[in-house]
User: Fold this.
Amino acid sequence: MIKKEAAANRLLERIKERKAFIGIIGLGYVGLPLIKEFHGAGFNVNGFDVDSQKVDALNAGKSYIKHIPSEKIKRLISAGRFEATTDFSKLKKMDCIIVCVPTPLGEHREPDLSYVFNTTRTIARYLRKGQLIVLESTTYPGTTDEDMKAILEETGLKAGKDFFLAYSPEREDPANKNFTTSTIPKVVGGYTRNCLKVAKTLYDSIVVRTVPVSSTKVAEATKLLENIYRSVNIALVNEIKVLFDRMGIDVWEVIEASKTKPFGFQAFYPGPGLGGHCIPIDPFYLTWKAREYGFPTRFIELAGEINTAMPLYVVSRVGDALNEKGKSIKGSKILILGLAYKKDVDDIRESPSLELIKLLRNKGVRVDYNDPYVPKIPELRHYDFKMSSVPLTEKNLKRYDCVLIATDHSSYDYRFIAKHSRLIVDTRNAVKGINNRKIVKA
Assistant:
């Protein structure tokens, strides 16, 4: 017991004195903001990634994420105490290692934890006594203290005794001007009391408030509940939208009126489908795990079915709108406005716009897109379109039979778009207040 406390106390002192070396694995939308915060708090930080292009960009002072300007990366480099690397042998020098790698779904909507487990095996190769390992990637309860722990303990070192193990779910919301990494409370769960103490102290150094919970499983479940709550409520309002469309009721007006109630109602908004790395994926991690306990998660799965079906609904609305204009959807030219999954970001992970492109192409549509933040569509896990953003000009707008607003970027001039488009199908209520017979809501 004395040895355990001594190891924890040594690491606690290094953290409090800003002498601890921090290693962040995964330099994406979660890892890069963490690097910025830990570096700003005075720590030496190493960023690890298998993508050499990301590593080279960061070491050259360049950002590849819109809401993190290159100027901030340049300041990291010029200040010292930061290096990005593909050399994972440097993990042995790190006191605290934070894992921020993807956790996608497989072909049959089963959890794909290959990135987490492969990263854990890499950490195990360089694991030494006194290190703290924290997982931030979203996953099912039990990943940290069962799966990861088992891999790390194959080294002969024991969690809670020789090294510390914790889980703290990321709560990033790209482009949110009201909340940043440092101002969002951080849930932390540890495998043991000392694991929690060390991890909490680490995050106390960069966030306004930590929220300690009794176990890693509680922390893992917290993240799932947060996003299932959003998924279910978005599914509800998407279903209501489809019904109200048939009834000739504007769902957006209904929402605006409903949210004037000062209690008992929180506004959620419909759209063309779910996007981002969290809401379309996280609920299925729990539904998969629930099968182990013989428990059917019908409510969660129904929400997933409704949200997944929204791109099909939008395409049907586009077809109906074109028919009203005497135009068949087959052979038509359609411009999709917005490829990112939400406004004012460059993140296209799980974006419904990608599914819309696929569905429209399958119907014989000639599809283009415009997005000021996504100049080209890279090769993705499920899509390889080889498309580039077309300029949003008066001449171009007039070329298309329909303009489909999928993402309501603030930079778009909607009056200009409405003026020069033949037909608009609006999935985001972006052209509200513009009285134009060419506009169809979907």
Q: What stands out?
A: The domain at 252-441 is CATH 3.40.50.720 (Rossmann fold). The mean pLDDT is 94.
